[in-house]
# Entry
Amino acid sequence: MNSQTNPPHNADNPLITIQGSIERVTFHSESSGFCVLRIKVKNYRELITVIGSAVSVTAGEYVECLGFWTNDRQHGQQFKATVLKIVAPTTLDGIEKYLGSGMVKGIGPHFAKKLVKAFGELVFDVIEQSPERLLELPGIGKKRQQRVTNAWSEQKIIREIMVFLQSHGVGTSRSVRIYKTYGEEAIKKVREILIS
# Structure
């Protein structure tokens, strides 16, 4: 992609993938998952408007979107995501924004900075596989450590369910409805349907 102010638009555009950080959640419906996001995409000067579906979205998270460019009469150029998934950022600044976004209960911007300073790029592994190491940081007790690891596990379950459903050909908006209906049982229910 070249540096440009406006993304290319062509009705014949094939599905493409874009990635970026969510700068603003303009709209998100918890019941349907429909969302309108403003994301910062590398090589674009302006923020990109992305429309799609997701169980939950928070400013600061990184998204990978598979979709196509469209021109809405009222809202102008938009990227319509047929698949929208949250991906872990890879830069330290991105990791800090991601953790400080409010997505993981118990981690705000200040604590995110401490985590990244202490554990660097390994911070996700520490939270997931060695959560007791969080107690090494000043200002974190057993209660907060538990809240962080529980919230992280909950987000991981949501991501796994969405990946599972989408890998079985279920679209994002339908995946959101299935998750809202069955929660953590979603994978089990879909497997039962596939087997029968």
